[in-house]
Amino acid sequence: MPLLIKICGLKSAELVDTAIEAGADLIGFVHFAKSPRHLDLSDIGRLIKHVNGRAQTTILTVNPDEDLLEHLLALDPDYIQLHGQETVERVDHIKNMGARVIKALPIGDREDLDAVPLYAAHADLLILDAKPPADAAHPGGNGEVFDWTLLKALDPSLKFMLSGGLTIDNVEQAIRDVQPFGLDLSSGVEVRKGEKDAGLIKEFMRRARD
Ligand SMILES: O=C(O)c1ccccc1NCC(=O)[C@H](O)[C@H](O)COP(=O)(O)O
């Protein structure tokens, strides 16, 4: 089965087209005010319409309240991505609202793996991302790689997307060593925080798909 590849934090229709034409399966839009990739609801709605079914879409948010969730669901993304401290009960609740849910889990050490089978039984997709540095302004999109060898302790039948610091230089090794179900990335195809580069997106996708 081909790798599911998600590119997160796209902000323009042109770069959305670049990512889709290069073969991205899932496009992520960030709604988190402190992020350099933050978009307001009207821009996210416009970009989801622009994708128009050519790829799947997700809106990424952090510990959303009911009111925000209702606004996000009205934009009709394929998934809501949760990147905060949302519990499995919260994941279930959001699914009951009619959403498919991607849950991101921070991985820094062996103990962090305990949450993986638990959330795998509730979320539609799981992202295993690097634990953010203590002084990070946002819980994801920090370009940090975690120790992939930790993942050897997981049940091999668990499906997850590998995330955290993926770049054109480490993507082939990541696929070889980890053999994930999917990949998720943001900073690795940026020239500056929040600014994606078409050439890096194409090169990343070429190396990931070869
Ligand atoms: O991207 C952000 O700015 C962001 C802000 C708040 C919560 C999560 C965020 N990103 C989550 C993602 O899905 C990223 O793709 C993932 O953390 C990997 O990022 P990177 O290490 O930069 O590739």
Structure overview:
With 210 residues, the chain is an alpha/beta fold. It has a single domain, classed as Alpha-Beta Barrel (TIM Barrel), CATH 3.20.20. 30% of the residues lie in helices and 21% in strands. The chain contains seven helices and ten strands. The chain has helices at 13-21, 41-51, 66-73, 88-96, 115-120, 171-178, 198-209, and strands spanning 4-8, 26-30, 56-61, 79-82, 101-107, 125-130, 161-163, 182-185, 190-192, 195-196. Strands 1-2-3-4-5-6-7-8 form an eight-stranded parallel β-barrel. It has a two-stranded antiparallel ribbon with strand order 9-10. The longest helix has 12 residues, at 198-209. It is globular. The protein starts with a strand and ends with a helix. It binds the ligand O=C(O)c1ccccc1NCC(=O)[C@H](O)[C@H](O)COP(=O)(O)O.
Report the sheet-strand fraction.
15-25%
Bound molecules: the ligand O=C(O)c1ccccc1NCC(=O)[C@H](O)[C@H](O)COP(=O)(O)O
Write down the overall mean pLDDT: 97
Helix content: 25-40%
